[in-house]
Amino acid sequence: MKKSIVLFLVILLIPFMVESSVNGYKTYGQLISSFKTISASPYAKLKVLGKTDSGKRIYVLVVGNEKAPAVFVGANISGYDLAASESALLLSKFVLDKVKSSDKAYKDKCFYIVPVLNPDLYSVPFKKPLEKRVKNYTPKDDDGDGLIDEDPPEDLNGDGYITIMRVKAVDGKYIEDKGFPYVLKKADPVKEERGVYKYYIEGIDNDGDGKYNEDSKGGVIINNNFPPLFKYYRKSSGLFPVSEKTTKAIADFILGHKNIELAYIIDRTNNMLKLPEMGRTAKLGDMKVKVPDSFGKFLGIDTKKQYTLSELVKILKEAGIGRGMKITEQMVASFLGIAPPVSIDPKDYSYYKELSKKYKDLAKKDKINIKRKAKGEEDGSLIKWLYFNTGTPVIGVDVWSLPEPKEEKKSGKGLTLDKLKKMSKEEFLKLKDSELKEFMKKFNASPSFNVKMLKKMIESGRITPAKMASFIEKYKSKAGSKGDSKNKALKNYIEKELKGKGVIKWQKFNHPQLGEVEIGGIIPFVDEIPPFDTAVKNTKLVNDFFDLLVKKTPDVKLEGLSVKKEKSGAYRVKFFIVNEGYIPFYLAIGRRNKYSMPILVKLELPKDSLLIEGKKLVRISDLGGLGSSKEVSYLIWPGKNKKIKIRITHKRISDIERIINLGGVK
């Protein structure tokens, strides 16, 4: 009996590598049960958004009036990001409280909150053996041998984890990371590092093809299966965009709800800490295109002839078009509608940049560490699809990522960069060899570069101490690879935050095919799933920033209404359609890709009235942020019934209706 209790506790601890007192993450069933409890409120209801590839239901909590402008919250598209789903639960309670209290910003809004966009992978961190799995379970031939899912990883040493196997080899490319032996890094010959090991995911070569665990069950990353910048050459992206039922269910829901004016994605991506890319261009090559007649006549070129994009760029520059703006092939292609944009629009970037500052200010206020290894937007991701294909403002936030190691306080002892900057040649040459060795070690100088060489360079005048300091300062951030940087952050986190937990020491194992190997390394998800209390603490920033964004959503109003009777007896009616919200009604990208739907301004007149000037239906498609406005004007000859009606409609705004009695105007 005692043994079974101990085994049960071990299974519970496997996913989190921390003490059981902070192991509060819910199973999928428990999580959905919590959402069902919330949906008992008259202000909320739980619906099924769609089904995944394995047939699991994707749930969406609807809070507020579904006919009102909406904010979409999508959490955990990775599937295994338990912290994101927990954060979505806490955010749901926060939103419900705001709606219940008739908070002004939440009163006339709808909120669609999806706690797990990718339920197929939610249970992965709870399973034994624990495997770091990021792909769904769609059967797939990963290695192209005609067999499907035939070579998955195995827990060879029976410790409950799928880690890695390292084996010594003459042609090995990897070495142990100094000071952190649980990870391997690629050897750098320039630094006189000689490769020692090859490594494999733990398991055997089931299909006898000389590869190990290369064809595990399934194989598509849902967050790489969306259309924009879809990578056809990457097997894990899927056969084609939206090839997966999960992806299609998400896309169908969003496209079917035109009232969504803002998307808030809680997952591994944080585009407030790592802003979207600027200046990226599509590979257009020497693509030849025909120019539309109107465009060609304006430029004075032959529209029957085909031009390369580079030729068109040259023509535009020579014509002086652009007012100093840099004209690129991508820009011309986007204008002609022959290539999709791949970089954030500069006008939209300004908003993202400003919101990023506000996010960081809130993080400081909430005492949440933002000096961490935040992940940027991925190609083929939900975030990129929402932005590029639907023109929706989309903010991606994470709950947690590996903190950057705190820089050790500079000591006054020994040689420092500050001291080096102020040194004369003579002072440098008087330094002890031991002091210079320590200094060189601190900045990862190559072993072939010794103290004697350094002193000769200074003595000969080839370089001054100040220039040396400047050079080191400029390139010290590039001293290690990205892998080295992550290993350093991981080491710091495991040693200081997890008190040494989260790793498996290397253990010798007699492999049936490789011979003697060592199995060990980092326990899966240590760098992805934080302790439960950390997730709860960090959700304060997720909620506070969400609250800030809701208060900055587009707010379209009819303002400045004036009615004046003219000498002729006709009435001049004027007003403005104004966006009082900070965020533009549609982003610039939405207007560029023609996704944006115009605001409709409809004038309804009695049968015996006459519209002399103006249009009964006005379409407003370009309405920017805060204070952006469009004037609408009518000249009306009234009949006996002098009441007119103005209706302003759009899926993203609450309908506006005004009835004006012209007879009451003198």
Radius of gyration: 31 Å
Largest sheet: 6 strands, mixed
**Top CATH class of the largest domain:** Alpha Beta
Number of strands: 22
Question: What does the model show?
Answer:
- The protein is α+β, with helices and mostly antiparallel strands and 666 residues long.
- The protein has five domains: 2-125 and 223-277 and 345-402 and 531-550, Zn peptidases (Aminopeptidase), CATH 3.40.630; 141-217 and 508-522, no CATH class; 288-336, no CATH class; 417-478, no CATH class; 556-664, Immunoglobulin-like.
- The chain contains 18 helices and 22 strands.
- It has helices at residues 2-13, 28-38, 82-100, 104-107, 245-255, 293-299, 309-318, 329-336, 346-366, 382-390, 417-422, 425-429, 433-442, 451-460, 465-475, 482-497, 532-550, 588-592, and strands spanning 44-51, 57-64, 70-75, 110-114, 164-168, 174-177, 180-186, 197-201, 260-266, 288-290, 306-308, 394-397, 503-511, 515-522, 556-565, 571-579, 599-604, 610-613, 617-620, 629-637, 643-649, 656-661.
- Strands 1-2-4-3-9-12 form a six-stranded mixed β-sheet, with helices on both faces. Strands 8-5-14-13 form a four-stranded antiparallel β-sheet, with no helix packed on it.
- Strand 6 and strand 7 form a beta hairpin.
- The protein is globular, with a radius of gyration of 31 Å.
- The N and C termini lie far apart (93 Å).
- 35% of the residues are buried.
